[in-house]
Amino acid sequence: MKRIVLIVLFLLCHVCQSQTSSYLDSIFSLQDRMSKRQFVQTIVSIEYDKALTNSKKYLALTQDAEKIALELGDQELLAKSYAALSLAYHFSSKFDMAIEYTLKSAKLYQQLDDIENYADSYISLGWKIKNRDLEKALFYMMKGILILEKSDTKSIKLIGAYNNYGVLKQRLSQFDSAYYYHKKSLDLCVVNKDSIGIPFAQTHIAEVYIKKKQFDLAEQYLNDALQIRKNRNDVYGITDSQLYLGDLHYAKKEYRKAIIHFKEAEKMASKNHYFPLRKYALEYLYKSYDKISDTQNAFLYYKTYTYLKDSILNKDTNTRIAELEIQFQTAEKEKEIVTQKEQILENELTIKTRNLYAIVLGFALITLGIISFGVYKRNQFRRKQLLKELALKDALATIKTQNKLQEQRLRISQDLHDNIGSQLTFITSSLDNLKFVSKEMSPTMQEKLTGIGNFTTDTIDQLRDTIWAMNRNEITSEDLHNRMLNFISKAKNVTSEIQFNLKNTIPNPMTFSSVSGMHIFRIFQEGINNALKYSNASTVNILLENDNNSFTIYIEDNGIGFDLENVTFGNGLLNMKKRALEASGKISVNSKLGNGTSIILTIPLQNTSNDV
Question: Which residues form a coiled coil (predicted)?
Answer without folding.
Answer: 314-348
